[in-house]
Amino acid sequence: MTRSSDEAVVDGMGESAVTRTYAQLLDLVLSFEIKPGERINESELSRQLGVSRTPLREALNRLVTEGILTSRPAKGFFRRPITAEEIFQLYQVRSVLEFAGIKLAIERVTDAEIDAFEAFMAESRKAADASASTQLALDETFHERLLGLSGNQEMVNILRGVNRKIRSVRWIDLTRGGRAATQDEHGAILSALRNRDLAACSGILEAHISRRFDQIDSAIREVYGRIYAGPPMQERVA
Predict the structure, then answer these.
(1) Is 76:42 a contact under the CB 8 Å cutoff?
(2) Which of 46, 56, 60, 155 could serve as a FRET partner for 19 with CA atoms 20 to 30 Å apart?
(3) Is the Cβ–Cβ distance between 121 and 186 less than 8 Å?
(4) What pairs with residue 71 in β-bridges?
(5) Alpha-carbon distance 128 to 5, whole Å?
(6) For residues 103 and 19, what is the distance between their CA atoms, to the nearest angstrom?
(7) Running DSSP on this structure, what letter comes out for residue 128?
């Protein structure tokens, strides 16, 4: 059977094409160029990104797997709506994971691993003027790397899934500023980790990653306000 050029792209240079397309789609999602609940026009998106339909479909399916998009039979792909309750629950999962992870990390981490982590931190501080999506990626890397010090890769995998689903709300946090304060908190976490001070690590983490329902609701209302410049999404307020 003769294979199409699109199939050859996926099997040959395809993974790089899919990865590039995935990154472009994610930027469109994070910047709300693709709006919550919006149906995705694949033909238009293919032209916009300058990519053929096969790698585009692969990238869209990857976002479906990550829970960022949904796929409906005979109707196509849609950006998932954002709900405060779901995001709040995901933040709770994130907190549980990171608190458990820091306890394990304190028991097993070496000074050499902390040295390497601090070198990464020094490099990431140079990205202070980078785009919000780049800063968000660095912040996710920090927390996934921190959890990785626990030695439990399954916990890291779960955190990555959670981070993907809360990116839109965290993107709003980053566009509000405060990157320097975030970096200072990261440094304080590593300092407490070097001292094997569980109480200090836990306290800093709690202040750093915890979000109340009303804070999340406010961020989502801001999202919808920016998108539609109209009435905010109606969500219950705790």
Answers:
(1) yes
(2) 155
(3) yes
(4) 77
(5) 41
(6) 34
(7) T
Q: How many CA atoms lie within 13 A of 96 on its CB side?
A: 9
Q: Which two tokens stand for residue 69?
A: 């998009």
Q: d(Cα 135, Cα 122) in Å, to the nearest integer?
A: 14
What 3-state DSSP class applies to 39?
Answer: strand
Helices (H), 31-152: 42-49, 53-65, 84-108, 111-124, 132-148
Cα dist from 201 to 39, 101, 124, 152, 209, whole Å:
43, 11, 20, 18, 12
CB 18 within 8 A of CB 58: yes
What are the residues whose beta carbons fall under 8 Å from the beta carbon of 222, sequence distance 6 or more? 172
Burial status of residue 202 (CB atoms within 10 A of its CB: 0-12, 13-18, 19 or more) = middle
Structure-token pair, residue 8: 């050859």
Q: Are 138 and 125 in contact (CB under 8 A)?
A: no
Element (H, E) at 130: none
Strand partners, 213: none
Q: Is 209 left (phi over 0), alpha (psi -120 to 50) or beta?
A: alpha
0.85 surpassed by pTM: no
Instruction: Provide the pLDDT for residue 203.
Output: 93
